[in-house]
């Protein structure tokens, strides 16, 4: 990855809160708490997860790479469920946006360049990774959860389409 790739990642990271807000804004409360299948997350749980990651995952790992590397602390993927228990989707969307803006402001203060992107960190499962890989994963993580929320909304509404189900690949088969 080069500096241009870094700029693209920062643009994607900046856009994610608006995309999430757009997805959630018009969704009925029932769809936001609808679960595709046992063990699958609701949209509210996804929102709690991405907000929590802004606090406990992404920026602490960026800082670890910039301060000489070392092992990343494990990330509790469901830690946000407890942190944000009882929160509304609206609150979580706002929280995510606020935390992301603060993280992007902090990221800008590092004045990252191409050599920074090669700085190492150690993932608890994958071993040595670079700051560039971490930043790319951060942006990819956003888009994966945007796709997940879109799928949940599609399937929530899709329960009521009757015979049109055959025209929607996302309504075919079981939960993904």
Characterise this structure.
It is a single chain. This protein has one domain (3-171): dinb family like domain (Four Helix Bundle (Hemerythrin (Met), subunit A), Up-down Bundle), CATH 1.20.120.450. The mean pLDDT is 94. The protein has 8 helices and 2 strands. 61% of the residues lie in helices and 5% in strands. It is mainly alpha-helical and 176 residues long. It has helices spanning 3-25, 29-32, 43-56, 58-66, 79-83, 89-109, 114-117, 131-158; strands at 120-123, 127-130. Helix 1 runs antiparallel to helix 6 (89-109). It has a two-stranded antiparallel sheet.
User: Which quaternary structure do these chains form?
Assistant: single chain
Number of strands: 2
CATH superfamily, by name, is: dinb family like domain
For the record, the CATH architecture stands as: Up-down Bundle
Question: Structurally, how many domains make up the residues?
Answer: 1
Give the overall silhouette. Answer: elongated
**Can you write the helix and strand succession as a string?**
HHHHHHHEEH
Structural class of the helices, strands and pairings?
mainly alpha
């Amino acid at each position: 990855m080069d500096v241009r790739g870094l700029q693209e990642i920062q643009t994607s990271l900046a856009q994610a809160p608006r995309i999430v807000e757009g997805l959630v804004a018009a969704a009925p409360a029932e769809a936001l708490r609808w679960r595709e299948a046992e063990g699958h997350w609701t949209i509210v749980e996804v929102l709690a997860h991405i907000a929590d990651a802004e606090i406990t995952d992404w920026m602490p790992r960026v800082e670890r790479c910039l301060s000489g590397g070392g092992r990343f602390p494990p990330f509790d993927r469901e830690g946000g469920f407890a942190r944000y228990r009882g929160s509304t989707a609206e609150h979580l969307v706002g929280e995510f946006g606020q935390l992301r803006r603060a993280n992007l402001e902090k990221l800008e203060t590092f004045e990252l360049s191409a050599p920074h992107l090669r700085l190492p960190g150690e993932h608890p499962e994958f071993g040595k990774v670079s700051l560039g890989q971490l930043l790319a994963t951060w942006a990819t993580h956003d888009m994966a959860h945007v796709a997940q929320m879109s799928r949940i909304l599609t399937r929530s509404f899709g329960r009521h389409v009757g015979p049109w189900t055959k025209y929607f690949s996302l309504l075919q088969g079981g939960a993904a």
